[in-house]
Predict the 3D structure of the following.
Amino acid sequence: MHTDGPTTATSPARTSATQPKATAGLGHSMSPRQLTMMGLGSAIGAGLFLGSGAGIQAAGPAILASYLVAGTLIIIVMWALGEMAAANPNSGAFSVYTGKALGGVAGATVGWLWWLQLVVVIAAEALGAAGLLATLVPDLPVWLAALVFMGVFTAINLTGVKNFGEFEFWFALLKVAAIIAFLIIGAALLFGWLPGVASPGLATFGDFAPQGMAGVATGLFVVVFAFGGTEIVSVAAAETRDPERSVARAVRTVVWRILVFYIGSIFVIAAVLPHTSEGLKSPFAAVLEAAGMPGAGAAITLVAVIALLSALNANLYGASRMIFSLAERNEAPRALKTLTGSKVPSIAVIASVAFGFAATVLELLFPEKILPMLLNFVGSTCLVVWGSALVSQLVLRRRADAEGTELPLRMAGFPWITSFGIVLLGAIFAVGLSGAESRAQILSTFGLVAAIAAGAWMRRRAVAAKA
């Protein structure tokens, strides 16, 4: 296994099965730096800034093991997606690759499933960002802020991929800067370099796994969803200049930085805060307050708002491109593939955000009833998407090798690393099915997958009958 992940092949020869083919009509104005920062920023969300405490509460410092397992899985998934995206940059990404490997119904099912997840999460992110902002500005109505957020980011997505990419670049840069600052302060605190502040040392690691392996397993299922969204890099590859080089660079950069930022941050939090600490409700703020940093709570709240808005922006982009790709493949209404003069799928953008607007209004009318129900159905979607990516790469790579096809980016250690990723994914599903709450979520997602697959199959039959 190579330490730098995927390797590149220099031969330009390809067969029709893997020939690069950017989605027709879309532009290629996203820069490599924007793609790289998007991949990095999509993995650094509110799940890290606000949700990491739940994992530590479940497993104590042993949550590091859960992060290592989940981090290893997402790295393997990123390598697999990078190989396929470099060979065939397409806005349908893993939906297209699943269709090539496992058939059209499977591809359409994965595409619609991911789209549904994103449009639900768009509403959750708008409401979450508005709620956090309201803690700093109490007079600001949550409903108004949520609708303004969605309106603003709809406008950004309608103006062109270059503008979207630039907004996402700066959002991601702010999040990365916040993480780096946190790691520097955390290291200074642990080493006793802060004047007037005693180092907590590593006393909390004396009780490394207070809940035993059961806590680590519970934490694993909590942690895995923090990495959701990273797969959007494979979608954005279709609108990036020089996708072969850009995807390879993005994958390599994102892989090691995810480990540094996540593992580093969790190590600091677990060292400073015991697993019974009330500060784990907002762990980054609690650590900064322990370091004697004034205004830490407000600063981290603002960073969390930025993280949510960044995710909203990226998810609206990803949802619109996925449903545009489905329309191109005749798996969705044809109107959704309409492009503006700036090569933006405007109707796809509006359709994707419309669900978010509706869900937000319903959630505001019926608090804590609509979104929890919707999120329960789509909660395990990322695991299904990652599984489809790994299986597709296994099939398509074998097919390319059998045909003698040269790929622009080759995942090292094939097929063993891909197979190991599938085993890891299976273990996470097994862990999820062992708990009552997570079992209900997984079974709900399986039911949704079955319903979408049935709908995709019937649509294909209807289209074939008309032909």
Q: What stands out?
A: The two ends are 49 Å apart (CA to CA). Strands lie at 7-8, 409-410.
